[in-house]
Structure formats: C-alpha cells, structure tokens
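Final report, results section. Input specification for complex C-07:
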Amino acid sequence: MSGGAPMIHARGLVKRFDDFVAVDAIDLDVAPGEAFGFLGPNGAGKSSTMRMVGCVSPVTEGTLRVLGLDPTRDGAAIRARLGVVPQLDSLDNELTVRENVLIYGRYFGLTRRELRPRIDELLEFVQLTDRAGDRVEPLSGGMKRRLTIARSLVNEPELLLLDEPTTGLDPQARHVVWDRLFRLKQRGVTLVLTTHYMDEAEQLCDRLVVMDHGKIVAEGSPWQLITRYATREVVEVRFERDRPENGSLEGLAERVEELPDRVLLYSVDGDATAARLAERTLPPHSTLIRRSTLEDVFLHLTGRTLVD
Amino acid sequence: MHALVGPVRAYEHWLAQYRRVWRGTIGTSLLNPILFLAAMGIGLGTLVDASPNAPEGVRYLDFVAPGLLAAAAMQTAAAESSFPVLGAVRWNRTYHAMLATPLGVRDVLLGHQLFVATRVLVASAGYLAVLAAFGAVHSPLGLLAIPVAVLVGAAFAGPVMALGVSVEMGAAFPTMFRFGIMPMFLFSGTFFPVERLPALAEWAARATPIWHGVALCRRLTLGDVEALPALGHVGYLLLWTAAGLALARWRYGRRLSG
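Structure output:
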C-alpha cells in the first residue's frame, strides 16, 4: 500500500438481511500497519462488517473500499491480497497440517514449488513444524487456530482479518496466538480483528470501535476510550449484609453503579473514595481498588443486559 | 483468469481428500457390480431366460447389466452430491475456506461437480470392467457407456447439490433416496422395460434422466445403436445437466454469499 491510503475505507456502510439491519451506516478508516479492533456484543454487526470487508458478502448500501478497490467489482482481486482467519475453523480435518496449507495456497494459484519453502516457514512461525505430517483432526484447539493463522498467511497478505481469533482457547494458547499476531504487526501487516475479550483488544489493538445494534458507538485507542467513558479507577465493594440502601452512595464517586452482588464506584482516586465510603457505611465484606479497563467501557456503552 | 482455472483449483482440494480414501471406494465399486450381476443377471436371469417373453429377446444378464451400470452412476452422483455438500457448508466449512480466497461461488460449485464426475467416472469404469468379465459387453461401443454414465451423473449432481447446499440437516437425504432415487432405480427400465408399466407411469419413467441413461447404455453394450435416438438421449441428459447446474448455481449463491 503506497502513500498511506487507507486499507479499509467505509462511508455509510449498510448490511441488511431482509428486514433486519445488521450494519447500520457505519464510517470507518483503517490505516496501513494499524491493528484495528471491532468490539461489541453478539449480534452487534462485527462479523457482518468483516464479511463485507472480506468480499464474501455483498454491500447493501454505502461505500466500501478495501485496499483501494471496490469489493463489488474486484472481489477476487481483493481476496487474493487478504488473509482471513474465520470465527469457525474451516480446516480439512482428514488432511495433514502441511497439506492444509498446500491446498489453501493452491486456491490462490501458487505453485507447489513456490509453496514448499513458504509452508516450512509458516509452520515454523506458528510452531507446528513437528506436526507437519500429522492429520489435523486430533490436534488441540490452539494448534488448529495456529494452523488457520498459518494458512491465512500463505498468500503473504497485506491485510489480515481475524474474526474472534482466540475464542474458546485456553490461556496458554491465547497468549501464543497473541504473540504471533504481535509479530505480524511488527512486520507491518495490518490487522483487523473482532473480539469480545477486552484484554485481547487492549493487548493488540492500536485503535478500536465499539459496535452495538449495527452502529459504531465509540471509537479511539483503548486508553482514550477508558479515559473518555470510564474513570481512571474503580472501587468494587461487596457487602455481605448491612448493604447501604440503593442511592445512598451517590456523590461518593463520579458515577455509582449498583449491581445485585456489588457496588461499583467510578473514581479518579480510588483510595480517597474508599476512605470516604468507610466513613459513611459499615465495613464492607471486601473492597477492591483497580484500574479501569475496557470492560468497564464496554459494559457502560453496550449495557449489562444479556444479548442472545 | 481462464474460466476453468478456478474450478480446477477447487477440484484439487477434493482430489487431495479422495487420495486418503480411494482404496475403500475401489473395493465397493467392484464388489457391488459383482454382487448385482451375480444375483440379478445370473440368478434371476436363469428364470427370466426360461420364460417366453424375455425383454428385448436378449439374455437377461445382457439386458440388466448396462441398466445397473447407469443406475450406479446415478447413485454415486447422488451420494457424492448430498452429504459431502452439506458437510462442506456446515460441518467442515470447506466452501467458506475456498470463498475467502480468490475463488468464487462458481468455482466452488464447478470444482465440486468436477470431482463428482471423477467419482462417477472411476466407479463406471470399474462397473464396465466387471460387465465385460461377465461377458455382458458385446461391442467396443460399450466403452462409450462410461462417458454416458458420467453424463447421467452430471444430470443428477446439479439438482442434488442444489438440495444439499440448501438444507440445514441431513434428514432430507434419506427421504430423497427413498422417494426419488430408489423408485427411479427400480422403475426406470433397469430391471424391466418401462412399456410394462401403466401408461402414466411409463411416461413418468421416460421423463427421468435415468431412463435415458439406461436405454443408451443398453444400446451401447449390446452394440446396436441408432444415431437419432442416441442423440436424443444425450441431448436430454445435457438439458438436465444444464438446468441442474443453473439451479445449483442459484442455490449456492443464496447460501454462500448472503
């Protein structure tokens, strides 16, 4: 990509399925080399947006340019330069690890001769070299994910789309995936990912948008979002009994959120707030002062109601 | 990109997968015809041949063998176009993997269809070899029964793939086999001439692609082909193939690029 033109450019982008509006007129620009995240609850429109960017789902309305090209006209040419890590694994379970990358590389029209050294390199990168000749089916979830990532890199993509890359993985496996993605980012690959893991977004993303009901409700770096939509610190208080009446803690902090099991006090200075709280109530069962996280932002913006 | 480059790339995937299981399929591809020809052609055949109204005045083995070959092509094509297609959409998501690359819906469909044709080709070649071993091939023209069988397979692959890509579960397929494929196997001229059916059923049988495949294969292995009816059969099978492909293309588009 030359001259810093955006890798993804969207204006008023809409995706409709019959009467249902999955993506509701969003604007978006992703710069080369950026790690960009879509956050949002299930059904917020993240995956629909990713599918349009991946040129597998037609745009209903609005403008979309990917790598400067129009998905409606140049879908195949764009896909030739994209890497895609889908939400659900789509590996060939009966084939070996190596064959999986080989066959996928053939979809791009790469020759077997070109692919041979590249596959070695990719399997090395995702730490699957010693499993190269094994069938995929018995591999662990983390290994399959890494293989999916290796496969998505076979065409040396400029833009890598990852739809919930670590959902369902154990903590070790997640950290290995994050580490590989971070290395890709260092190499200058543009990463676009969806996630509902806030730590994942904080670890990987330079910039992110929070989506809800098909709309972008907030945008910025993780830190910008935290300072804009939350306070610096949060005091989490649990009462076993002698819980103060609802509303009686208002004024103790910039924002007070009373949940069934605990009370959250959003504050610039957690210690001071905790001290003032101690003057006003009987001693709580536990008090935790912590830094605000994206999770606080997320729940503030998209609500605590369960989305199914 | 040349029109066939994409389909061939998708086809390579199915071939790679087939390489892992082909030995098993060769076994059944040979055993099935041996069992059927022994039971129907020889076992039942000795009774039919003893009766005064044997069909077409030939040995029953010679009558039934080419019909079985065509019917096997239909069954192979239907089997390869049903569960594997559903699996490629829902379970293994093979199609989705392909569509994330430069391949398009058309490539995915044609590549898979090409593979179904390959399976039918291999199965039919095996079937014809067994036919020849039983002495049921009476002319070199019988070799042409292989491409005709592939055409029969193609005529069935389209509509079945259209169904396979549309359903959410495999429950539709046993129904399709029970009420579609099985009656066609039994009543479309494989075991007895359709003229023996009541008039309405006879015309229904003649409208199926399998009847045309059976009739043409029979003329080829018996070695008395007339050009015009043969062309009619081929034309009718091509028509089904084209219509089936168009139907499948529409269903694939609806399902895979929503």
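Chain B has eleven helices and no strands. The radius of gyration of chain B is 19 Å. This concludes the modelling results for the funded period.
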